[in-house]
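Why do we care about 3D structure at all? Because function follows from shape, and shape follows, mostly, from sequence. That is the central idea of this module. The next example makes it concrete: a single protein chain, its amino acid sequence, and then its structure expressed as tokens.
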Amino acid sequence: MLLQIDLMQDTLVVLHYFSVILIFYLAYQIGRKIREDNLLSMNTGFTIYLITFGFYVAIADLTPLYPEMEVLLEPTIFPMLIIYLGGMITYIVLTEYEENKFNTSEEDNEEFGYPLTSIGLGGFIIFISLGLIGLYDPFISLLIVLIPFIIATNSILKKFKNLEIVKRRKPGRWFYVGLSFSGFSNMLVSFYFLIGEVIFIIRYFAVISGILLMVHGWRLLPSLSELDWMLKMKELLIIHNETSALLFKYKFTQASQEAEDIDSELAGSAMSGIDSILSEILASKGHIEEIEHSGNIVIFLHGIHSVCILIADGPSDEFRYRLEMFHLSFENQYKAQLSNFTGEITPFLATQALIQEYFTH
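And the structure:
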């Protein structure tokens, strides 16, 4: 019996500290993206949430590990709940803040931009006020803050619903399943006095799996700057591989907005030459995929019979993915004309329909 009790305690200790270390490690990984983003961003909010959740798990779960210290540990639970709920509030505030920055319609700008923050703060203040006089229910208070937390996340996901990379990755599915596991883990604490220490083993597995799924889903979520992917594209060129002939060109911006109207025939030949020269200089087995200069990028996408070149004023995973799909469709649709190219480019004028299909929605 003594061995069994010791084994249970050792298991709890290992799972406890592993869970805490994992949460802080994942918070660090998400926090690294803040340098690439804005300090006041969703990434910052989610990082703070993970850190506060880590502190909550680290302190609030010590009682079953060290029952002899229960008298000392009991008063720390309320402050840890304040910190944890505060992390959720911070996430909601920064999510709505960044969302408001990207609201472009006049109707959105006229509306009050922080409704979820107001609801969350109201529940948070009530929780603290009642807690100070010894009257609080942590699960009801958590629910009051959790609902705006979920709505704020869902609001962001809705903004991404038209992005092809989001449709393909499905970040919301992973995030919400992980959030459900994390919420389930918090609920399990209330069964400690009914079931005993074994409930914390289940809790730690729920914490570990939940936090891993949430972070995985978050990593799949693109930056809000991806919503402006259409505004970044300038010009598209399609060049025949063997002859370097320009098959098709399309300007995403009006010619009047351009500083200079570069001859596209000359540009097509130059781009093809740049690719060949750089590949030889770098002794590369493949081709150049991207050139960056003064904030502008030139993306080379190489097919069997043609090279697709996109000129943009910034990177975007969304238009890169759409470019890949566009180029595959182009080569499939014009396979016969490309393999037996005679110099006639009239058939490729219908490529305009593919532009509308892949780059206008």
